[in-house]
Amino acid sequence: MSELSVNPDLANERLNATFDVENLTNLIYGGPEKVKRRRQIHKVASEDPFYKKLKPWSYCSVEEQYENALAKHNHIKESIDKLELNGFDDLYYYKSCVTPHEPGPLDVHYGMCVTPHEPGPLDVHYGMFIPTIEQQGTAEQKEKWLASAYSEEIKGTYAQTEMGHGTFLRGLETTATYDPKTKEFILNSPTLTSIKYWPAALGKTTNHCVVVAQLFTQGTCHGIHTFMLQTRSLVDHSVLPGIEVGVIGNKFGFGTNDNGYLKLTNVRIPRDNMLMRYSKVLEDGTYIKPQNSKVSYGVMVYVRSMIVKQAFSALAEACVISIRYSAVRRQSETVPGGIEPQILDYQTQQYRLFPLLATAYALYFAGNYMSTAYSEGSQKIEKGQLEELPQLHALSAGLKAFTSYAASSGVEVCRICCGGHGYSQASGLPKIYVSVVPACTYEGENTVMMLQVARYLMKCYKDKQQGSQLPGFVSYIAEIPQKRSCMDEHLSFSCLVKAYKHRAARLIEAAAKQMQSLIQSGSPAHEAWNKSSVQLLWAANAHCHLFCVQNFVENIERSSGDSRTNEVLKAVCQLYSIHGILENLGEFIHDGFLSGQQIDYLQKAMFKLFEIIRPNAVALVDAFDIPDQVLQSCLGRYDGQVYQALYDYARMAPMNQTEIHSTYYTHLRPLMNPLTSNYSKL
Amino acid sequence: MSELSVNPDLANERLNATFDVENLTNLIYGGPEKVKRRRQIHKVASEDPFYKKLKPWSYCSVEEQYENALAKHNHIKESIDKLELNGFDDLYYYKSCVTPHEPGPLDVHYGMCVTPHEPGPLDVHYGMFIPTIEQQGTAEQKEKWLASAYSEEIKGTYAQTEMGHGTFLRGLETTATYDPKTKEFILNSPTLTSIKYWPAALGKTTNHCVVVAQLFTQGTCHGIHTFMLQTRSLVDHSVLPGIEVGVIGNKFGFGTNDNGYLKLTNVRIPRDNMLMRYSKVLEDGTYIKPQNSKVSYGVMVYVRSMIVKQAFSALAEACVISIRYSAVRRQSETVPGGIEPQILDYQTQQYRLFPLLATAYALYFAGNYMSTAYSEGSQKIEKGQLEELPQLHALSAGLKAFTSYAASSGVEVCRICCGGHGYSQASGLPKIYVSVVPACTYEGENTVMMLQVARYLMKCYKDKQQGSQLPGFVSYIAEIPQKRSCMDEHLSFSCLVKAYKHRAARLIEAAAKQMQSLIQSGSPAHEAWNKSSVQLLWAANAHCHLFCVQNFVENIERSSGDSRTNEVLKAVCQLYSIHGILENLGEFIHDGFLSGQQIDYLQKAMFKLFEIIRPNAVALVDAFDIPDQVLQSCLGRYDGQVYQALYDYARMAPMNQTEIHSTYYTHLRPLMNPLTSNYSKL
């Protein structure tokens, strides 16, 4: 594509913003120094000819996507040394620049890999395989495997999920039975449903994996444990005896990864291949229990906090694309024969996009909170201070679910807001969607996560009934309820937050009472739980929503930005809070908490906020500072040259490289001009 | 896959249903004779070895998907004669059996093609190209083109949408300028945005198209008209001079279709190539206006009624898959160590799936209504009775938007309800989603459609204010409003429908008053409209929702089924009505129409209905009688052998046909065991 100037509509938008974009970018990414470093890295990555010569992913077959991902991995590995990239931020950002929508964070320090978008085939090796050895292996085991793992001689994955079991780990069926005669474990997939299914990179890439299996020794099952298993030869990559391994076939997205299946038939591994830092099996088969079973709590919190950040990224990217495109796209007419307005001027478009933009900011602050809370929390755990862990754990589960759902559904709205062109891979939006939506399922299915939150809330409610003090954020459950909202036409943040508290507290109480009444009328506890679970879901959702609103408000109130930036952010935060009430109005007014008059204030305020945000909409997405190379979108380009880009995208399609497609000779010409058949009646 | 018996859980579900599935199937498809015929056709199609030997679509590249679609087209054409298939129902059903999720109805009689799922490359030839000639061509023009079109010597498409213009047709920029010297039109794409973009089969398949362009003659623009254009040679398929044509590149779905772009540079076509049945350009360039400009009204209604039916199909298919799978899938435990329940027993799963099942039935009845209304309406149009046309037109626009959105979002919920496996193409669900979701955009973008409904409603409201009688369904706008709902714990249909009427009437009034107040305070009409458009959207949506509820209720009340079938359908209809209120509660209680007590009745009733529907859920989806061959889903199989199917799907993946993938030699082995690099810090 030739060099073009910025689309004048987009240039105008940037002129008319009421605040300085750079200030907001600095606020988002932690100061001008960090922003400068991001941009340096991006520049290097964008100028590297290696990435430019790769075929665009949407024109690749699944096998080509996989092949490109491996090629990129190798090139990234080389480049990191050459470019002297260091530290998590540098590496993460470099990787996200060169694998658009695939910025899988690989973080040995924190010990886990989350795959926000399309994961590379080696991500799980660095993100889960190595960390598992580091955390669960003995000193000898680390000595034995880590060096070859780092040199990629052995490449591994984490084989947990089975065809029949995902989130519910206790149900896993793979067995590891200890044989004291040979001092080996015998691994088996005893049922069809026990076949490992979904682990990343299991199909073709890796030659090792950590298998999660039920440990049997001396005739007793001791629950799930982890075992090191070699699946392929280090000499020629052939599959070892007793093992059937392959890819699981094509998916909605994730083409870069060879998610695989694994069937085990009497595969023997040495006793030493059980990761024995915590639990042990002695030579004679005696089982030694772990000292502390809560070790993995912190890791889960970390993984979920990463998902919140990635939910933000996905929604932010989608907002950049759809809002820039809506400023460029002109359509229809409001006055007959008049100029066609930018579609961003239609109130209906603002109604769909601006609340999502506000949500992206809310998710950004929620992600920040979770990272900080995780770091502080893990320091406390180190010191043995575990009081806040349940609250943090519940919040991380809830925010994982709340934000992954908000981002996924929001990305699709952004896509549909781009009309027909949103359906083309050229928009970049389908890829973002298929990359973020599995976050609703992996690392804990969202409904299950929300019910974990609910279980915690029910405990809090009981504590409150028994007069105990509730910790930190959940203390609102014990506050004396207002009957009527304090809201007037000024819609202060304080009254808005109180409304969310009221709603959450009411729904928590309603769910608790429903449970209690079922139990009193003779239902067993598990049945009462199930028969209240939709109400528990509502309560948990309201709790998470309250957190996002309150946390956004607190960030705004202590913001260090300049006054014009703060003013815009304040409007965005108000929109997030007000729109959330209007979208869930029934839950707020079921008990008459808000009057008709107050609802009218909220509606009027929402429409007014659209007008305040309108001139700043493009600047608010520009502030995310996401380069074109990451967006990979013809519609979301910084220069707004949308139509030229769409035309170029079409022309480079593989099917356009010949004037006449081969099917003309094989399928079309042979049937031209036959006797007219009944088909014509169709 | 080997022959297997039915999964016992699924067999049990079928035993425990309280009604006879066959009765409901007969009710849905118009009696036992029609059901028998469907099944005969399905049997023939499913036994045809041609279809069995095609590679499953999800393992095909986009080019292979296109090639397979052409091969199928040719085979279908042959088969129709051989099998003596006749009439729209036969042909449509045969085609839907052999092109799963691609049942593009080809209906010359009604003159339009709607592409519900993946359209074949020749669908638009039969569905739009030929009908356009039939309807808009003169006798000579039909004589000239139709025979070769039916014989497929000429293959055409309908080139309307441009890069810069979709729903707003007046904005199209392609020009057709008459040159009286040569008696030709000169076709041009004067701007980048005027390039035709998206027309089906334009890229590689077709050699002709109908171009929609602005007609210029004698220095005046006369608006959009249709022109016959040959794009490729009939001898060798080469592209003709002045024409640039190709595919637009890969999309979210629709891999079977070569949607294309077309750029025209001074392409001259004879004067006779303008379709001149209505408007004419004489030899000297004189323009003759059409007699009647409302001809296409009926066609639009037809197309939209087809979209309603297809929205039903998509949602019904997704419900079949997710409900059968939820009966087979067992997960987690309610009692520690107890048997894992079917996930369909979880109230949270019921809360997500049963309202969608109810919606599928509501959409089914809405689609039926629209077909009948269209047939009756077109007879009246023939007789010149045009009174009901505006109401029908508004309803068709509204239901197109309401149902395509309900189905699209519902299909994704069904997919996510299947957990991780829902993300695999093996589930069939991603394909259904990407096939139905463009219906929110094509044939009139949903927001634009809803605003058309709103325009009609505003007119009705004005008529009411002026004391005019309102026609048929919209007469509720003029009913004297109740202040309080009549609902008691029995939740009669009559009170439920009245609640929907109240909500719609209130929102219509609120939008109208908002507009009037803006106009009174000096806003120009177009600005008042835009500033009220979100409220107009709410009003239109409530209107369409009311229609679906009321129409469902009316069908239940006059149902010809047996009593046990009716009882279940009644529960489904109640759930649809009650759930719709609870999901939009704010709109129903904003003005205090429902009391807290009444809301409690509704909530209790919803949970109670889940228990009534639970034993019938599988039977209710079985009744749709959708064969496995159409579902193409490992999770939704009639026999419930889900895990065997998933295992088989994985094993047949192309990447599993060799033990070691070629990338091992090219990408993995070369980098094994290098010096440990900084990458390990990632």
UniProtKB/TrEMBL annotation, chains A, B:
<dbReference type="GO" id="GO:0055088">
    <property type="term" value="P:lipid homeostasis"/>
</dbReference>
<dbReference type="GO" id="GO:0005777">
    <property type="term" value="C:peroxisome"/>
</dbReference>
<keyword id="KW-0443">Lipid metabolism</keyword>
<dbReference type="InterPro" id="IPR012258">
    <property type="entry name" value="Acyl-CoA_oxidase"/>
</dbReference>
<dbReference type="GO" id="GO:0003997">
    <property type="term" value="F:acyl-CoA oxidase activity"/>
</dbReference>
<dbReference type="InterPro" id="IPR037069">
    <property type="entry name" value="AcylCoA_DH/ox_N_sf"/>
</dbReference>
<dbReference type="GO" id="GO:0005504">
    <property type="term" value="F:fatty acid binding"/>
</dbReference>
<protein>
    <recommendedName>
        <fullName>Acyl-coenzyme A oxidase</fullName>
    </recommendedName>
</protein>
<feature type="domain" description="Acyl-CoA oxidase C-alpha1">
    <location>
        <begin position="297"/>
        <end position="458"/>
    </location>
</feature>
<keyword id="KW-0576">Peroxisome</keyword>
<keyword id="KW-0285">Flavoprotein</keyword>
<dbReference type="Pfam" id="PF01756">
    <property type="entry name" value="ACOX"/>
</dbReference>
<keyword id="KW-0274">FAD</keyword>
<dbReference type="InterPro" id="IPR002655">
    <property type="entry name" value="Acyl-CoA_oxidase_C"/>
</dbReference>
<dbReference type="InterPro" id="IPR046373">
    <property type="entry name" value="Acyl-CoA_Oxase/DH_mid-dom_sf"/>
</dbReference>
<dbReference type="InterPro" id="IPR029320">
    <property type="entry name" value="Acyl-CoA_ox_N"/>
</dbReference>
<dbReference type="GO" id="GO:0071949">
    <property type="term" value="F:FAD binding"/>
</dbReference>
<dbReference type="GO" id="GO:0033540">
    <property type="term" value="P:fatty acid beta-oxidation using acyl-CoA oxidase"/>
</dbReference>
<dbReference type="InterPro" id="IPR036250">
    <property type="entry name" value="AcylCo_DH-like_C"/>
</dbReference>
<dbReference type="Pfam" id="PF22924">
    <property type="entry name" value="ACOX_C_alpha1"/>
</dbReference>
<dbReference type="Pfam" id="PF14749">
    <property type="entry name" value="Acyl-CoA_ox_N"/>
</dbReference>
<dbReference type="InterPro" id="IPR055060">
    <property type="entry name" value="ACOX_C_alpha1"/>
</dbReference>
<feature type="domain" description="Acyl-coenzyme A oxidase N-terminal">
    <location>
        <begin position="20"/>
        <end position="114"/>
    </location>
</feature>
<keyword id="KW-0560">Oxidoreductase</keyword>
<dbReference type="InterPro" id="IPR009100">
    <property type="entry name" value="AcylCoA_DH/oxidase_NM_dom_sf"/>
</dbReference>
<feature type="domain" description="Acyl-coenzyme A oxidase N-terminal">
    <location>
        <begin position="117"/>
        <end position="154"/>
    </location>
</feature>
<feature type="active site" description="Proton acceptor">
    <location>
        <position position="443"/>
    </location>
</feature>
<comment type="similarity">
    <text>Belongs to the acyl-CoA oxidase family.</text>
</comment>
<keyword id="KW-0276">Fatty acid metabolism</keyword>
<comment type="pathway">
    <text>Lipid metabolism; peroxisomal fatty acid beta-oxidation.</text>
</comment>
<feature type="domain" description="Acyl-CoA oxidase C-terminal">
    <location>
        <begin position="494"/>
        <end position="673"/>
    </location>
</feature>
<feature type="binding site">
    <location>
        <position position="161"/>
    </location>
    <ligand>
        <name>FAD</name>
    </ligand>
</feature>
<dbReference type="GO" id="GO:0000038">
    <property type="term" value="P:very long-chain fatty acid metabolic process"/>
</dbReference>
